[in-house]
Specification:
The protein has about 280 residues and is α+β, with helices and mostly antiparallel strands. The protein is built from nine helices and 15 strands.
Length: about 280
């Protein structure tokens, strides 16, 4: 299910639920307006990239909850949220360092609520002492995947040099940024690249993905199209495209390219050469 947070605000307005689009500071009630619009790709119900983790920087004394009491509180918050928004699948609820404030995971996004879900906060929770964006830290932690669990047999494999560094990319054949990334990868050596065909831009993307996968040499045909614009010939066969799409939804892939590295981290979008090399160097 695809949702926009702006749609949430409209829904909340209909039920007279106060919603604030602000940055929340952990030590002081300073607020600034947030105008960012985020599109959320919901995973299938019950499927998450990784198990829900404890909130960053949360301790029993800070959050005011511990052990089974904390679990009971977060369960109550989730129940209250789902009662107000029965159409929304909640990935998990966790306490935050801000007393009385709880994070709610929805797809790849985080919202914040009070215990009774009378208020919803959309924005970044900042640790003022450490000058750290706790929301960004949490999203990064929640978006990590176990690279070893990826079904690499349904991806197109390219090996450059000794192939010692490994990355996986969700790509649409008609994605301009994906083609830009392929050009960047021309100048990167000693890397193995797994491309999951993720045709989401148009029906033609699905056709091209099928033709590429069904080609006799899918890797060469893929490179010919992405780097040189050579259209793949018509071909028919059984493809793993639906599996790739389902996998992307489970991992909350919202656009292409979406890059996953061997250390479990991910980056959305095409990286410039220097940034990509720097990231790959950390994987040695």
């Amino acid at each position: 299910m695809r949702l926009r947070l702006a749609g949430w605000l409209a829904t909340a307005a209909l039920v007279s639920l106060p919603v604030y689009g602000v940055h929340a500071w952990a030590q002081q009630a300073t607020t600034t307006e947030s105008t960012e619009k985020v599109t959320i790709e919901q995973p299938e119900q019950g499927v998450k990239p990784q198990p829900q983790q404890d909130a960053v920087g949360v301790s029993a004394s800070t959050a005011g909850n511990s052990g089974s009491a904390a679990a009971a509180t977060t369960a109550a918050v989730q129940k209250a949220f789902e009662k107000r928004f029965p159409e929304i699948d909640v990935g998990g609820v966790a306490p935050t360092p801000f007393a009385g404030l709880y994070e709610v995971q929805v797809g790849s996004d985080l919202l914040y609520v009070n215990a009774d879900v009378d208020y919803i906060l959309q924005g970044s929770l900042i640790d003022a002492k450490r000058r750290t964006d706790l929301t960004a830290e949490r999203i990064d932690a929640l978006s990590r995947v176990d690279f070893a669990d990826l079904p690499l047999d349904i991806a197109i494999k390219q090996v450059k040099g000794d192939g010692s560094r490994v990355m996986a990319i969700f790509e649409d054949p008609n994605c301009g940024y994906c083609k830009q990334l392929h050009k960047t990868l021309n100048d990167v050596d000693n890397v193995t690249i797994y491309s999951f065909l993720f045709p989401i831009l148009s029906p033609d993307s699905t056709t091209k993905a099928r033709n590429i996968w069904c080609a006799k040499d899918k890797t060469e045909v893929w490179r010919d199209w992405m780097l040189r614009g050579k259209k793949p010939a018509e071909a028919e066969c059984e493809t793993p495209i639906e599996q790739s799409l389902a996998l992307g939804r489970k991992l909350n892939v919202q656009g292409t390219p979406a890059i996953f590295f061997a250390d479990g981290s991910r980056i959305n979008g095409a990286l410039p050469l220097n940034a990509l090399k720097q990231k790959l160097d950390t994987l040695k």
